Amino acid sequence: MRMWIKDPLAILAENAARGIVVEDGRITECVPAGQEPSSPVDQTYDASSEVVIPGLINTHHHFFQTLTRAHPSAINKELFPWLQALYPIWARNVTPETFRLGTRLALTELLMSGCTAASDHHYLFPAGLENAMDIQVEEATRLGIRMTVTRGSMNLSQKDGGLPPDTVVQDEDTILADCERVLSRYHDTSEGAMIQVALAPCAPFTVTKRLMRESVTLAERFDCRLHTHLGETIDEDDYCLHHFQSRPVDYLEECGWLNERVWLAHGIHFNDDEVRRLGHACVGVCHCPTSNMTLASGQCRTKELEAAGCPVGLGVDGSASNDNSNLMESLRHALMINRLTYDAASVTHFDTYRWATEGSARCLGRKDLGAIAVGKQADLAFYRLDELRFSGAGDPLAALILCGAHTANRVMVAGDWKVIDGRPVHIDIERLRAEHGAAAKRFLEAL
């Protein structure tokens, strides 16, 4: 079926003033001003009241953390004390059932905000949660959203001088065996893949060097991406200097991680030489503005990283340090904090759109996503400007960010509608809210 998405109010694409044609899940034509599709269409969708942008791509999250949003034990803390407050609570209460609900809620929120592809960095494996990756594949497939299932890991706990409790880490051999299992079962390298897999040792202070290096070997064997937290706080720098006698980027290089397969979460505390080296290696960086502000972690050097050659993407990060899973909201936060870092003229709404689409696609190694252009997958987000917050807005594309858009009216993934009239087509929102809210109560019982 050929569908003409006709006459959008505005569209983030070149030579597509009259819209685009979607066929077999891909964009097959951009229709310039004054023209019509080059051949007959089977269906027309009137987009004249909607702003159309590429589906947003979330490159860093922790879905299970939706169960501890605004948790009294963790608010008003920076990263390390925040983790120390929450690790014991997660260790006691994250079960297959609560994990499934946390995943479902995060994916639903993302989709409703206009996100069509997401990556989750899951690193917590208490006994009984060995099938965490399988649960996430099931939930993403049910919702119809693309997902990079990121098999995280930790094998250094409190007994080893690390931060996490002993009960949530696994040994190296168990981790590597499951990484290979998940890659073999789910990693799809074909164009238009709905599910891909990445390997993601959590952070330098929670994993061994052997695990970092063996992850590289597996990534090369299965042609997948690599992901980890790096450069998020000054405390992390101090930890690496104390334990490894090197800064985080130096340690990353020792482990064989300075290459184009890698994208990093946060990437805040890099000096000029490290920015240059990361760019030369084409290492991606996921900017997490909302979480970075919440935890007072610092300000990512987005402009310098891009100039050096790093793909820069966008992520909401964990829902206990962001407290929601709304990627469109993060675009506004990215614009504001980067203007504070640089200036108003140097950072525009087009920069934040690029980070959340093309940049994020590059971080995930997805050449088929991230833009409205012929040959790309038909992953699209549609927003109406009929709320009071948009009244008086002159530039529709700028208004989505500057006036604070939150919810997409429609979302399309691979040419299929996944959100209609602001509601996901495969999820009962009211039931999900009730079930998730009930599950989250057990995370407060220890107070």
From TrEMBL:
Pfam family, one: Amidohydro_1
Leader sequence residues: none
Domain of life: Bacteria
CDD domains, per the entry: ATZ_TRZ_like (cd01298)
Alphabetized UniProt keyword annotations: Hydrolase, Metal-binding, Zinc
Domain Amidohydrolase-related, residue spans: 51-385
Record-level Gene Ontology MF annotations: deaminase activity; hydrolase activity, acting on carbon-nitrogen (but not peptide) bonds, in cyclic amidines; metal ion binding
InterPro entries reported for this sequence: Amidohydro-rel, Metal-dep_hydrolase_composite, Metal_Hydrolase, MTA/SAH_deaminase
Family: Belongs to the metallo-dependent hydrolases superfamily. ATZ/TRZ family.
Name of the protein: 8-oxoguanine deaminase
Organism per entry: Stappia indica
